[in-house]
Amino acid sequence: MLERARSAGADTQLATEFRSALEAYGRGENYFNDGDTEEADSYYELALMKGELLEKELAAIKAKRLEEARLAEERKRAEEERLAREEANRKAQAELEALAQKERAQAEEAARAKRAVKPVPKEHVLVSTYTVRRGESLPYIASQPEVYGDRMLWPLIYRANRAQIRDPRHIWPGQVLKIPRNLSREDIAEARRYSQDRLLH
To answer: Looking at the structure, do residues 85 and 30 belong to the same domain, yes or no?
Structure first.
């Protein structure tokens, strides 16, 4: 029993108790060698009791160390899991920030592209007739993009509608005026000269 205790580390971990057990055994040996078996037996029994206590204490120490090792392993595993969670959270946060930055960049690029796109000028369909509305004049009608886009060309409208316009200063809502097309340069130049001599508002 004492040899088992020694091999289990009793001589270092429980040095005092181990020496006490050895001394009890040694005294039993001495009494046995002197022929006093009764005294020897009492020391052998004492050494046996101390040996049993040693084994129990060694078992308790071993169990405690195993429990400490288990707890340490659990703490280590918990710490590794915590670090892994933190790393996963950092990566997720980094991915979210990268995605948000990408979306911001795309939005800025779209805004720049939108600003860069020049508005397509509206195409005005040239009309061959025009219905007069309240408050309009021949220069105003001539200035409309779908007519001539030039208020100085009102004489062209006046001449084409002499049948219903007596005075170019007076036109009426609801009148449908013809708008001459296929004009020559001479027609346009002459209309401008005429309008300069007879300014209308």
So the answer is: yes
- Does residue 122 form part of some domain? no
**83 and 150, same structural domain?**
no
Please work out, in degrees rounded to the nearest 5, the angle formed at the alpha carbon of residue 139 by the alpha carbons of 200 and 125: 175
SS3 label, residue 71? helix
Angle in degrees, CA 87, 88, 91, rounded to 5: 85
What's the rounded Cα separation, in Å, for the pair 113 and 94?
A: 28
pLDDT of residue 121 exceeding 70, the answer is: no
Reported pTM = 0.42
Whose tokens are 């209308």? That residue is: 200
Alpha-carbon distance of 200 to 187, in angstroms, equals: 19
CATH code, domain carrying 186: 3.10.350
Name the pLDDT band for 120 (thresholds 50, 70, 90): low
